[in-house]
């Protein structure tokens, strides 16, 4: 019996590279846009033609980002800095009104054993990384539902899927964000709105540089040992991810090839969650 042939790659010609999504006419809001990953996402979305509302509490960082966006070649979409502290939840919800794409990215980290973890920091982490995304989604959905199209991308983490010691607030917030994202996917499906998480391992950003110092203090070991023996211990690939690689995943989730992708978590973790 001959087996049916299945379509597959041929050696005759390499497939043409997929075009970048065309986001002209779309408005995107990126939180934490002055930081490592948020900045890369904001620039990639602007380069794809979106009008980007860049939100962060770091006004100087946003001003610098706007200058970088203005220097980009071609005719990218505009980038508008919007300084905002996301602990002002009412303001966060208002800021999201009218956006077509929402990237919930802002975050912070404190590495400390539970019995020493300051309750007020736990509260702030949950507010910025879970409560604010809820309010931003809440603010964004009416316009998305009205037009029958919307993209919600939540920057989670491998710590949305796995735990690590000393990161109680961060792990709790990210696990919560994964759940919130799935609920938004279920509710949004009938309205053309997708909601997904991008869940990276360690990315080369200021947040990680601060964590390396914190972990070194917590474990009493040198910084290089933190990276090689603690941070990347569970990663099959022994390198840090670059912010641009996370931004590329975000772009994919906003583009036409991902229209059936919702309620999922796109792990960029070098094999960490394969364990
Ligand atoms: P980062 O520290 O470089 O950037 C975070 C940004 O969030 C900063 O610009 C900061 O000002 C902003 N922010 C914090 N609190 C805020 C508030 N109250 N209001 C407004 N803005 C606020 O960090 P990053 O590494 O780019 O992280 C971005 C996201 O990616 C976070 O959610 C983080 O958890 C996630 N992440 C990072 C890594 C990593 O290894 N760097 C890995 C997985 C997930």
pLDDT averaged residue by residue? 93
> What is the level-2 CATH architecture name?
3-Layer(aba) Sandwich
> Biggest β-sheet, characterized?
7 strands, parallel
* Top CATH class: Alpha Beta
Overall tally of domains: 1
Radius of gyration: 19 Å
Distinct ligands = nicotinamide-adenine-dinucleotide
Q: Find the count of extended strands (DSSP E, 2+ residues).
A: 7
Strand/helix succession:
EHEHEHEHEHEHHHE
Structure in words:
The protein has 275 residues and is α/β, with parallel strands linked by helices. Helix content is 42%, strand content 14%. It is built from eight helices and seven strands; from the N terminus they run E-H-E-H-E-H-E-H-E-H-E-H-H-H-E. Strands 3-2-1-4-5-6-7 form a seven-stranded parallel sheet, with helices on both faces. The longest helix is centred in the middle third of the chain and has 29 residues, at 119-147. The protein is globular and about 50 Å long. The relative contact order is 0.14. Residues 1-11 have low confidence and may be disordered. Nicotinamide-adenine-dinucleotide (NAD) binds next to helix 1 and helix 6.
Q: Which structural traits does this protein have?
A:
8 helices, globular, disordered N terminus, Rossmann fold, about 40% helix, alpha/beta, binds nicotinamide-adenine-dinucleotide
């Amino acid at each position: 019996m001959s087996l049916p042939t299945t379509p597959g790659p041929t050696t005759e010609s390499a497939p043409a590279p997929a075009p970048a999504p065309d986001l002209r006419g779309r408005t995107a809001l990126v939180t934490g846009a002055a930081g490592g990953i948020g900045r890369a996402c904001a620039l990639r979305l602007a380069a794809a033609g979106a009008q980007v509302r860049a939100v962060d509490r770091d006004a100087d960082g946003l001003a610098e980002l706007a200058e970088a966006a203005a220097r980009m070649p071609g005719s990218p979409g505009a980038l508008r800095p919007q300084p905002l502290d996301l602990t002002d939840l009412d303001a966060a919800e208002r800021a999201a009104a009218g956006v077509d794409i929402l990237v919930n990215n802002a975050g912070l980290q404190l590495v400390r054993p539970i019995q020493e973890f300051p309750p007020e920091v736990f509260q702030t982490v949950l507010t910025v990384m879970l409560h604010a995304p809820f309010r931003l989604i809440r603010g964004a959905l009416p316009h998305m539902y009205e037009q029958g199209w919307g993209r919600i991308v939540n920057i989670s983490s491998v710590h949305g899927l796995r735990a690590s010691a000393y990161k109680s607030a961060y792990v709790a917030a990210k696990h919560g964000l994964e759940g919130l994202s799935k609920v938004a996917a279920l509710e949004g499906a009938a309205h053309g709105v997708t909601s997904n998480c991008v869940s990276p391992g360690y990315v080369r950003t200021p947040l990680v540089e601060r964590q390396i110092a914190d972990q070194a203090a917590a474990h009493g070991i040198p910084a290089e040992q933190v990276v090689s023996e603690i941070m990347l211990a569970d990663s099959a690939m022994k390198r840090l991810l670059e912010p641009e690689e996370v931004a590329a995943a975000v772009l994919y989730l906003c583009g036409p090839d991902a229209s059936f992708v919702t309620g999922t978590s796109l792990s960029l973790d070098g094999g960490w969650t394969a364990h």
